[in-house]
Amino acid sequence: MENSIYQQISDDEHDEDEVVELEDEDPIIGSHIENGLLQGEAHPSNKPTVLYLLFFFLINSLAFGIIAVPRMNLVVSLVCRHALEGNEKPDSPPVIIGGFNPQCQSDEISSRTALIAARGNIIVGVLAAVVSTSMGRLSDRIGRVKVIAFNTVGLILTEGTLLTIATFPMSLDYRWLYAAYAIDGASGSYALTMAMASAYVSDSCAPSIRSIQIGRLHGAMFIGIAVGPLLSTLISKIGGSKLPLLVFYVSLAMRFFSILYLQFVPESRLTKTSQLIAEAKPRHLLRLTARSCKPRLNFSKLDPRAWIAHLIPSSVPSSAYLRRNLILLMLIDLLIYAGVMGTMEILILYPQVVFAWGATANNLFMSL
Predict the structure, then answer these.
(1) What is the pLDDT of residue 281?
(2) DSSP reduced 3-state for 85
(3) Residue 50: C-alpha distances to residues 56, 60, 146, 178, 273 (Å)
């Protein structure tokens, strides 16, 4: 049987989809077909498995949980310092950057902090939506693990920016926090990591066990988020008022460890197939473009209906029902994710202002 790979691409000159056949005579694709790489074969000693990602997710979620409350306290202290600058009372204690400051627990400062957090979440959400789409396509060519590493580097830069702002509060205004939010969003945030982890599972596992493995990843993630605040309390007690930023350094060290750990994580099996198809698509697009010398803009790609049609083509049986279910899942995901991200800061700020909880009680509350 003649080996060939079919790929459906969009012709700029027509609205219809054109099927392009990638022959195995292609010097790149043909050589890999002969070597059996398109069937997803992996060396037994380097076989991809979800267990590799379980440990990675546990470490990263621990790092996230460790700084959940201290990160909000950092924003509060920076805003409080700016608000009280020049208006301090003679007997008022100094604002500890990154620590818990009772003098900062007021409605005005909490309102400013919540507004900054809301703006930051919008920045992260918009940038992450754009970056996740582009990096998801790129992962078909370079691999899922490399994209996860890119996202982890972004988290390291985000926390490094926060540490820099906290270390030099006299020189850097609290508005530099938006730079940290922008870096987080530009790296895809946690949305990109979850997407790449799901793709890794889909590439490496049989369809019958994919939901189980994805559930294990989420379990490892939420275990880390739950245990992280408890570890944060222990680290904060060790650092005390002399080292209020110790918890940030520990979290940063865990991020560095996770990026080193990714060097030993094997790439998913089907990445080679996706890579060959993704690399072949631009070559055939160039051939199609060369047929016409009249360039024109195609705004159809901005239509959300085109995105859904790309995921579920109309030729698929029961495509109308599948598209409806896909839209419902997207709306459910949007509501749940927006609710979680929108209320996380409030869950930390509200007990501090209303019940005068300190960092220890707040960490325990977030852990539960």
Answers:
(1) 55
(2) coil
(3) 10, 15, 16, 35, 19
How far out from the chain centre does Cα 161 lie? Answer: 17
pLDDT given for residue 335 in this prediction: 85
Q: Which two tokens stand for residue 261?
A: 């750990």
Amino acid (one-letter) located at 345: E
- Enter the tokens of residue 328: 């419902």
d(CA 217, CA 123): 27
Name the phi and psi angles at 147, rounded to 5: -70, -40
Is the whole model's pTM more than 0.90, yes or no?
A: no
pLDDT computed for residue 94 by the predictor: 83
CB contact at 8 A, 154 and 187:
yes
> What dihedral angle (degrees, nearest 10) is formed by the CA atoms of 126, 128, 130, 135?
180
Whole-Å CA distances, 308 to 11, 15, 312, 313 = 18, 16, 6, 8
Tokens 């702002």 found at: 165
Closest by CA to 128, choosing from 87, 67, 72, 189, is 189
CB-based contact 222:30 (threshold 8 Å) = no
- 360 in Cβ contact with 233 (< 8 Å): yes
Q: Which stretches of the chain are DSSP H helices?
A: 27-34, 50-66, 68-84, 107-142, 144-167, 177-186, 189-204, 210-239, 246-261, 271-289, 304-311, 319-354, 359-367
Q: Is 321 helix (H, G, I), strand (E, B) or coil?
A: helix
3-state secondary structure of 294: coil
- Nearest to 199, CA basis, from 138, 116, 108, 283: 138
Would you state the structure tokens that stand for residue 52, as one six-digit string?
Answer: 């590799």
The sign of the CA dihedral 77, 82, 86, 87 is negative
Query: What residues in the chain have per-residue pLDDT under 50?
Result: 1-42, 271, 284-286, 288-295
What is the SS3 assignment for 357?
Answer: coil
3-state secondary structure of 270: coil
